[in-house]
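U., I forgot to send this yesterday:
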Amino acid sequence: MNDKGTVKVLVTANAAGQPHAIVCGSFGIIDEDIITVGEIFMKRSSEYMAENNKVAIRNIRRDYIDLVKDSDDMTDDYKKRVQDEIQKVVDEMIGKIESIASTKEKEIMAI
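Result:
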């Protein structure tokens, strides 16, 4: 991984499973969940990375809303409030992802 002469390739896929691969200047693995990537010059990879994060957040939302719906310890009104709060957090996080992706796209297009 750390050999400067080694060709490194980043492969991403969109929500439909279409792969996209690019050669990267550098990347490293911090732990099993975090990969750092440097010198990505491809707009499509950036878009796929943003979309994958949004899909992950939506999947988490679905899991938590299912837990709330299945709960016998909450009234229907309280369940609705909790679901609304979950959606609010999801909307905020997706907004942040879109903002970061937009900034990154502008950087990529400026190169």
